[in-house]
Write a structure and sequence with these properties.
Blueprint lengths: L2 H30 L5 H18 L4 H16 L2 H36 L4 H14 L3 H16 L4 H24 L3 H31 L6 H4 L2 H33 L3 H38 L2 H37 L3 H8 L2 H23 L3 H21 L4 H26 L9 H5 L6
């Protein structure tokens, strides 16, 4: 199959599964947005930002597992492939314990960060107390979806996400609107969905396990020092990268909170657009991770070039479609997400920024996938750290322009990420530096 077609075939189920996340987030917003009082919507937005520190902070369990699994898959090493899954599972258990230990300190710290007082503080606390209980389901699901992605079984993440998010949506309506549990009900719906998604992934794994039994590694191989240290080092770099990314969005939310609850509520609506385009573009980034990782594992530089080109073409086409859709239907989408007239009016002022998000995000997302597949954690970490270091002073510098200044800084942050990763890929000999030594030495350094 031609590279463009292969990229699209792998990406399509990933795009569909990824898009269920923002779509269900829109359901959360639409349901909670019908509860009187902007503080409820603001609490869900701020609480979700805090939980993203867990979801994305430990997202290295998905990306590191996926990249390592893709390379083992490309090398045809079934024994290592199975050891990667078991090793990542052990790390997920330890990470869950760590989150639970920190939880009592996270609640007051979150309220202080967002300057949440009165009703907003109480509602934020009610949301977080429930959401934190879903940590083991989130982390376990990340390990399994990353592993299946590395094996290029992209239909499994689709099944997992559909199960999780459809249940979340149904329970949102029942618990929030039907039974009146408010934001705590919305949080409980999310936890139940995450648990169901993990259960589905485990059922699929159980069906695959007999085919892997002959390649079962011994326990000492799973806990072997060198591969464990490699996983942890890669996880450390991806974790730091993700903390910088989440730091940018937390700073965005914190600065918006100082503009008032109305701006926070409006941005909660608008960030659904960002999440929608991010998860759409991530489908091609994930496909690039799988194909680039397989190419690196097999030492095939030409396949890596094909994977990169296909991902950029397909992601660029999707970005253009999303941008046009946001221009044409932005106001209608905002109206679906909230019935509060003041929030609708405030969100409408910034739809122009939202429409620029997809095309300005393409390079950052595609390169993330390529570098994840090549397990180049240090480069990913450094690029994100530099972009974050530039975002913070820019966001403060543009504060006199209010929310428009914040959105301008966010767009600049995305552009800089893409530029830095492009530079690093070029410096690596257009991917030749990603190859095993004997392959890189024998291959030209230009595509």
């Amino acid at each position: 199959m031609p590279p463009l077609g292969r990229s699209f075939r792998l990406a399509l189920p990933l795009i569909l599964s990824n898009l269920t996340v923002p779509l269900m987030g829109m359901v959360d917003t639409a349901v909670v947005g019908r509860i009187p009082g902007a503080h409820n919507l603001a609490a869900v937005a701020l609480g979700a930002a805090v939980m993203n520190l867990v979801v994305w902070g430990f997202g290295f369990l998905r990306t590191a597992t996926g990249g390592l699994a893709a390379q083992a898959f490309g090398a045809g090493d079934a024994r290592t492939l199975k050891a990667i899954l078991l090793r990542s599972g052990l790390v997920a258990v330890a990470a869950t314990a760590f989150v639970f230990l920190l939880a009592p300190f996270a609640f007051p710290a979150s309220a202080a960060l967002f300057a949440a007082e009165g009703e907003l503080r109480a509602t934020l606390h009610a949301y977080l107390v429930v959401r934190i209980l879903g940590t083991p389901f989130i982390l376990g699901g990340q390990v399994l979806t990353g592993w299946f992605l590395g094996r290029q079984e992209t239909g499994v993440p689709l099944l997992v996400m559909l199960t999780a998010n459809l249940l979340n949506a149904a329970l949102d309506v029942v618990l929030v609107l039907g039974l009146g549990y408010g934001v705590a009900g919305a949080a409980a719906a999310t936890v139940a969905g995450d648990a169901a998604g993990l259960a589905v992934a485990l059922l699929v794994l159980r069906r695959r396990w007999p085919t892997l039994r002959a390649a079962s590694p011994a326990l000492r191989e799973v806990a072997a020092k060198d591969p464990l240290l490699r996983l942890l080092a890669l996880g450390r770099d991806i974790f730091l990268r993700t903390m910088a990314l989440q730091g940018a969005f937390l700073a965005f939310a914190a600065l918006a909170a100082r503009e008032g609850a109305l701006v926070v509520a409006a941005n909660a609506v608008l960030l659904n657009f960002f999440t929608l385009q991010a998860h759409g573009l991530d489908g091609f980034a994930d496909a690039a991770e799988a194909t680039a990782g397989r190419a690196v594992g097999g030492g095939r530089l030409s396949d890596l070039h094909d994977a990169v080109k296909a991902a950029f073409v397909n992601a660029g086409l999707l970005a253009a479609l999303l941008s046009l859709s946001f221009w044409a239907f932005g106001e209608a989408i905002v109206a679906l997400l909230t019935t509060l007239p003041e929030v609708r009016a405030e969100a409408g002022r910034y739809l122009g920024f939202v429409a620029l998000l997809p095309p300005l995000s393409v390079a950052a997302f595609v390169w993330d996938g390529v570098f994840f597949g090549a397990t180049r954690g240090r480069e990913i970490r450094n690029a994100m750290g530099l972009a974050f270091a530039a975002f913070l002073p820019l966001a403060f510098l543009l504060r006199p322009f209010g929310n428009a200044g914040l959105w301008t800084a966010l767009l600049a942050f995305l552009v800089l990420r893409g530029f830095l990763l492009t530079f690093l890929y070029r410096r690596a000999g257009w991917g030749a530096g990603f190859m095993p030594e004997k392959t890189a030495a024998a291959t030209a350094t230009t595509p």
